[in-house]
Amino acid sequence: MDDILMLDDTEFLIIKEQPYNNTNYIYAIATDGTNDVVFLKETVSDNEKYVESVTDKEELSKVIELFK
């Protein structure tokens, strides 16, 4: 079964995950017909998982290199 992630009421199909520096980076594509591609980061704090978009330009450049 495919891995699906819900974020802000949008469903994303996880294409690839890459752990780096205690963060799990995720490359995903929206399944709502827009085919939007996103890079997300998943962190754990106090046994809770948090997922957010990678928005910092410098961090985004590093993440893109991770997925090449």
Explain how this protein is built:
The protein is mainly β and 68 residues long. It has one domain (4-66). 15% of the residues lie in helices and 56% in strands. It is built from one helix and five strands, in the order E-E-E-E-E-H. A five-stranded antiparallel β-sheet has the order 1-2-3-4-5, with helices on one face. The longest helix is centred in the C-terminal third of the chain and has 10 residues, at 57-66. The radius of gyration is 12 Å and the shape is globular. The protein starts with a strand and ends with a helix. The mean pLDDT is 92.
How would you briefly describe this protein structure?
The protein is mainly beta. It has one helix spanning 57-66, and strands at residues 4-7, 10-20, 23-30, 37-45, 48-53. It has one domain (4-66).
Features of this protein?
globular; mainly beta; 68 residues; five-stranded antiparallel sheet; single chain
Could you list the spans in which at least 5 consecutive residues all have pLDDT below 50? none
> What is the rounded distance between the termini?
24 Å
Shape: globular
Work out the radius of gyration: 12 Å
Proportion of residues in extended strands: over 45%
Residues in helix, %: 10-25%
Provide the number of structural domains.
1
Trace the largest sheet across and list its strands.
Answer: 1-2-3-4-5
Structural class estimated from helices and strands: mainly beta
Please give the number of β-strands.
Answer: 5
The chain-level mean pLDDT equals: 92
Q: For the report, how would you describe the main beta sheet? A: 5 strands, antiparallel
User: How do the SSEs run, as a string of H and E?
Assistant: EEEEEH
Helix run count: 1
